[in-house]
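re: that chain from earlier
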Amino acid sequence: MEELIPVNSEKELEELFKQNYFKADEDFYFGVKNLAINFPLTLPISEERIIPKSAIEERQVGFSINNSKQHFAFSNCKFDLLLEFKDSESNLHFDNCQFNGVDAENKHLSGKIRFRECHFYNWVNFRNTTFYELADFWRSIFYPPTIFFKTEFIGTTVFSATTFKENVLFTYSLIDKLILFRGTKIEKGFDISTAIRSGEMGIFDFHVQDFKSLNKKLDEEAYERAIAQNAEIPIKNKRETFRILKQEHISQNNVVHSIEYKTLENETYLKENISKLLRGESIVSCVSNLFVLSLNWLSSRFGVSYFQAAFFTLIFGGLFYYFTILSTSKYEMAMNFDWNIFYENIPTYSSYLLPTHRFDFLGEEFGDKYSFNNWFYFFDLFGRIVTGYGIYQTIQAFRKFR
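^ sequence. v structure.
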């Protein structure tokens, strides 16, 4: 930032506005730059206090005579104390500004609000704020945890290239038209599970990694406090957020990126069920879910790793083959490894990996020389199930880009 000029009162700021106005986007703006605003400021400032009445009456300047329709621009300014908004139809443009506190709670902003390359420090409050027109936070950085609580985004909303250093939650927010997250950087948690999404989401080049969540039993009061006050994300909200992002990518025919959220969704569900089981909740359901989820994770990382699926098939197929041949009179368990026996069994092991193999896959002569106990058929049957499942998972993983 350039060296800033200190401004210590609203009157001083009004005088600077009177001296500077320009035309942009077919509107006239009052514009100031390179200021350190050292007092709490409420925007927009009344037009009558800036434009002389004679100028309004003679229409000597291009500003709207309607007191509610104004246009203000701040460039390279630092707001050391609170910046508060009031209901207005004004267009407000902040370019490369720093804020130590922003309060727009319960406000109706009908103009275009632009925060471009701005830095939000300490405290941001957009609770119950309504943006009727463009709300643009392009390339801005939010340093504190941020909750857009019941914020109504009626017009187009832009978070492109925006960075959130802490958790960001869109708790019961309304997305009515379009919200853009192109290139948005989420460094901690992201929760859009409770948002009301009647509009579209633009999520190109947008990535949310696994993040820390609130993984414990919450009553209704604790849940509301977490997502509305503490900026904490319960694990079920985390899982639902990943599901929403997965479905958004699928709806946009972006199968490649939907896969990463499919994996994150299932991994989150796995952790959720482990925690429930440890707390003694829904034991039967959790055990059933954990069996399926763990098997999917172990076999192919939820259908995304064909290498892991093939490795699973070979290893577990080999394990069941080993117990199957131990159920014959020819082999017995030993602590030492015999390479001759290993090479001898490669052909029959290859046949065993085919789930439709015959029961005499060891050879007709083998049955004449050696006997089988009942465990032979048990391990052979379950080996077919395991290798069949592993082959299926391998094929599914190969088809993940379908």
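The first helix runs from residue 10 to 19.
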